[in-house]
Design a protein that fits this description.
The chain is mainly α. Helix content is about 60%, strand content about 5%. It has 7 domains: about 10-195, P-loop containing nucleotide triphosphate hydrolases (Rossmann fold), CATH 3.40.50.300; about 200-250; about 250-350, Arc Repressor Mutant, subunit A; about 380-465, no CATH class; about 475-625, Tetratricopeptide repeat domain (Serine Threonine Protein Phosphatase 5, Tetratricopeptide repeat); about 695-815, Serine Threonine Protein Phosphatase 5, Tetratricopeptide repeat, CATH 1.25.40; about 825-880, Orthogonal Bundle (Arc Repressor Mutant, subunit A). About 45% of the residues are buried.
């Protein structure tokens, strides 16, 4: 019986909130929470403020098929009696709306907590055991209950409630209830910020609800806000008030991200003011930089326990994520929009402190990240510090393959620092690496005319900068393209005279410029052999190993696959000894291995190496975009739909950035056509490549284009395309591809002699480098012709025999998957799910994103009819999948 002295609490605490005007319905979240509540006793919905948790949960409760109880907590619910009262009242209200057998004991409970807490808790648990149908209890804002949540009635229900009670806890961060035993025991449902964030499509839908038209740029706003719902709302409203000005592209300089989004007051009131003062102060100081480590966190906070507070931010999901190790310590990244608002708040409250913290960050980064150092120094109104750091460390940054960012930073320096001689000389180097020698020369003249303002140390540095590029006139482009040897290797050798470190560095950077400008690989190979061929002890080891890695890529680009593999292996062995094989500088070596394996038709190895190269590679250097091209070619050859979807998405992502030249555009078009062909749409593939005409692009693009045109029956165009390759066949696999096309064209026209001559030339070029892929790609077309050629007579009988043996092995195009069958990638993810690895660790092992892993996990659960990792593994074991 209920206590006669009991007074009912406020009804709003046990009623879900109503959706406000313009709020967005989110069926994907409704479905995810329904699936979790069906399969787990406990589900956690955790995200910072502004992710729409209460609105989404209120909608779900009102439309859920199960009876749902709702309880909103406040700061007074730290008292055990008040919390018990709220929980019992909420459950009783839900039970009373749907009369069911077994409800009587629950409805008869006293909502007041007796002196013997354990007895009251037992009564509630026994009443719940009598339920014949499940009830869902949603408790919102659990973070307000404080540390007592775990020892009170909510902790008891989480640990001991019968299956008839499904518990959904929603809050802003880490709950005091211990959850690990649920994750690795009976299972725990979780929806966190990545799931609660708006997708790009939801941003567009939300903008439409708020009055925007179809032309609204939802993609830019989504990227700027990372889908943070309150920021999306604020951005749309702000744009409407400003006359619908287009959303700017996010920038990287501190303090400039999404400056027009008016969220500072929201962050101050709804996030910072709800935290302990020490934690709020730490966040205001630590968000000086978007990226930071523990040591920088301590320096910015000014007290030794800054690292402890950094961990607290991470544990409570306060807009920060942990990333890979850098320089021996974990790095942490703030949500860029949140960090920008915090910087704005600090600048308003204490502008002098804000500037001083930027200078602290600049000093921290001055030896490790010249661009971040300079950007922080400028924010701290210390341009001289930026100039000194650029002058001392610009070369280290250029070796990281991003001369464009360096040049942009130099141009953005305020006067008179933008006309500093050292800065002008750095800009000259950047222009030279971009192929703009005229502007480079003009900048050099301006720098030399102002050297009188430099002290002795800086004058020596400027002269050293000039020395890096002194070799350029002696290695001009007029004579480096000497006739290649029969095997396609450049026969011109650079003198083996020793070089200074400056000369080696200059040659190395010029070779990288050749790659960036998408020119032939021959000059790059010559330059790199010169940069890496001297035994001079003055040369930096970093230059030597990096030159060897790039030389491997130059060999691969020139078709010298044997030397590419040898150079890549040597560079990676040396890099491994120094712990460099996970650094960007080694990406060319991984890419060279991947290219060699692709043309050798070792597709599994190619897939592995190319994924590594793409993960490490720079956008501005071929190790990024070229690895994507080869990943698409490899995935088309293997025929796995999931992998091909991933690489195709990466291909379009690179193309959308618009950073690359015409040669990239041709390769991008060819790759898109190859995807269409792999999916069985040859007509669609031909339609994609028709704008390319019949040749006149890069040698690799033209050889692949000719092959596709021939297979599509456009014989005249294919023939013109191979003819356009005249004088550009030094590359072994390019020549092999083109020769096979010519052989098939001749065979189709009845010119048997020409067909066999071209086949013989193709195998002659392919055998030294083990170029099997062009034959495997066209095995059905070549099967009869190869048999005829073996009878006709060949000097390469063993190679022909190896080709025909390969042709007898089954090779698949895209395999049709039934709805209930797991794809190859899903099987890989499922295999890792047998361990205790997290989604992030599985993603790292497979070189894919965490979101992709989660997508595969959801697909696995759906196909196996499972609601948790444990259930999925049981079902898979029964079916013999694992």
């Amino acid at each position: 019986m209920q206590n006669a002295g009991w007074l009912p609490g406020p009804q709003f605490k046990i009623r879900p909130p109503l959706r406000g005007l313009g709020a967005l319905a989110r069926p994907r979240l409704d479905n995810a929470l329904s699936a979790s509540a069906d399969s787990h006793r406990l589900t956690l919905v955790a995200a910072p403020a502004g992710y729409g948790k209460s609105t989404f949960l209120g909608d779900w409760v009102r439309h859920c098929d199960l009876p749902c109880a709702w309880l909103s907590l406040d700061r007074f619910d730290t008292e055990p009696a008040r919390l018990f009262h709220g929980v019992v009242g909420a459950i009783q209200r839900a039970a009373s709306t749907v009369p069911m057998p077994g409800n009587d004991a629950l409805l008869a409970l006293d909502q007041s907590l007796a002196h013997d807490r354990a007895a009251s808790y037992d009564l509630l648990l026994r009443a719940l055991e009598e339920l014949t149908e499940p009830i869902v209890l949603v408790i919102d804002d659990v973070h307000l209950a404080g540390p007592g949540l775990a020892t009170g009635i909510v902790g008891v229900l989480a640990a001991s409630a019968p299956p008839s009670l499904r518990l959904v806890l929603s809050g802003r961060g880490h709950t005091s209830i211990q959850l690990e035993r649920f994750r690795y025991g009976e299972g725990l449902g979780e929806l966190r910020a990545p799931e609660l964030a708006f997708t790009q499509e939801e941003v567009a839908q939300f903008a439409f609800l708020l009055g925007q038209d179809a032309a609204f740029d939802a993609g830019s706003l989504w990227r700027m806000t990372a889908g943070w719902p309150v920021a999306v709302h604020a951005g749309i409203v702000s744009l409407a008030q400003a006359g619908n000005v287009p959303v700017p592209t996010p920038v990287t300089a501190p303090g400039t991200t999404a400056a027009h989004v008016p969220l500072a007051d929201y962050v101050a009131e709804e996030i910072l003011d709800q935290l302990e003062p020490s934690l709020a102060e730490f966040i205001l100081r630590a968000t000086t930089c978007d990226w930071l480590g523990r040591r920088l966190a301590v320096e910015l906070y000014g007290r030794p326990h800054g690292g402890v507070l950094l961990e607290e931010c991470l544990r409570n999901g306060l807009f920060i994520e942990e990333h890979d190790y850098r320089g021996g310590e974990s790095m942490y990244r703030w949500h860029s929009l949140f960090a920008a608002q915090c910087r704005r708040i600090l600048e308003r409250r204490d502008p002098l402190l804000a500037e001083r913290l930027h200078r602290v960050a600049a000093r921290y980064y001055q030896e490790s990240d010249v661009v971040e150092c300079a950007a922080q120094a400028l924010q701290g109104r210390a341009p001289r510090q930026a100039v000194m750091s650029l002058g001392a460390h610009w070369l280290d940054f250029v070796l990281g393959n991003d001369a464009q960012s360096l040049e942009r930073l130099c141009r953005d320096l305020p006067a008179p620092w933008s006309e500093d001689p050292e800065i002008l000389m750095i800009r000259s180097v950047c222009r030279m690496l971009s192929g703009d020698n005229a502007t480079a020369s003009e900048l050099t003249d301006r720098a030399l005319s102002r050297t009188y303002v430099l002290d002795a140390l800086r004058r020596r540095r400027l002269e050293a900068c000039r020395a890096h590029f002194e070799p350029m006139p002696a290695v001009g482009r007029q004579d480096v393209h000497a006739a290649p040897a029969e095997g396609g290797r450049p026969i011109r050798e650079i003198s083996e005279d020793s070089h200074s470190a400056a000369s080696s560095t200059g040659l190395f950077l010029l070779a990288q410029a050749e790659f960036r400008l998408h020119r032939t690989g021959d000059l790059a190979a010559v330059l790199l052999q010169s940069a890496g061929g001297s035994g001079n002890l003055e040369r930096l080891e970093a230059i030597d190993i990096s030159a060897q890695a790039d030389l491997a890529l130059a060999f691969a680009g020139a078709g010298d696959l044997v030397r590419a593999a040898e150079s890549a292996t040597s560079a990676l062995e040396r890099g491994e000894a120094l712990g460099w094989n996970s650094q960007e500088r080694m990406a060319p070596a991984w890419l060279a291995r991947g290219i060699a394996c692709y043309w050798n038709d070792d597709l599994a190895a190619a897939q592995k190496y190319l994924a590594r190269a793409q993960r490490l590679g720079s956008e501005l250097f071929p190790s990024g975009p070229l690895s994507v091209i080869y990943r698409v070619l490899t995935d088309c050859a293997i025929g796995e739909p999931d992998r091909l979807a991933e690489s195709s998405s990466a291909l379009e992502s690179f193309h959308a950035r618009g950073l690359y030249s015409v040669s990239w555009n041709a390769l991008h078009t060819i790759a898109r056509a190859k995807v269409a062909e792999a999916q069985g749409d040859l007509d669609g593939a031909l339609a994609i490549v028709h704008p390319l005409g019949a040749g006149g692009h890069g040698a690799l693009a033209d050889s692949l284009l000719a092959e596709l045109l021939c297979r599509g029956g456009e014989i005249d165009a294919a023939q013109r395309c191979t003819e356009s390759l005249t004088g550009r066949r030094g590359n072994s696999y390019v020549d092999t591809c083109a020769s096979l096309t010519e052989a098939l064209v001749a065979h189709g026209t009845g010119d048997t002699a020409a067909a066999h001559e071209r086949i013989e030339h193709a195998v002659h070029r392919a055998e030294p480098e083990s170029v099997f892929r062009p034959f495997a790609e066209r095995k059905e077309e070549l099967a009869d012709l190869l048999v005829q050629h073996a009878v006709w007579g060949t000097a390469h009988e063993s190679f022909i025999a190896a080709l025909m043996a390969r042709d007898t092995q089954s090779g698949a195009r895209l395999r049709t998957q039934s709805y209930w069958s797991l794809t190859e990638r899903e099987r890989e993810v499922l295999a890792y799910m047998r361990s205790i690895m997290t989604a992030a660790e599985i993603a790292d092992a497979l070189y894919i994103s965490v979101n992709t892993v989660k997508t595969h996990e959801r697909s696995i659960y759906r196909k196996l009819g499972a609601g948790s990792r444990r259930d999925a593994l049981k079902t898979a074991a029964k079916r013999g999948i694992v």
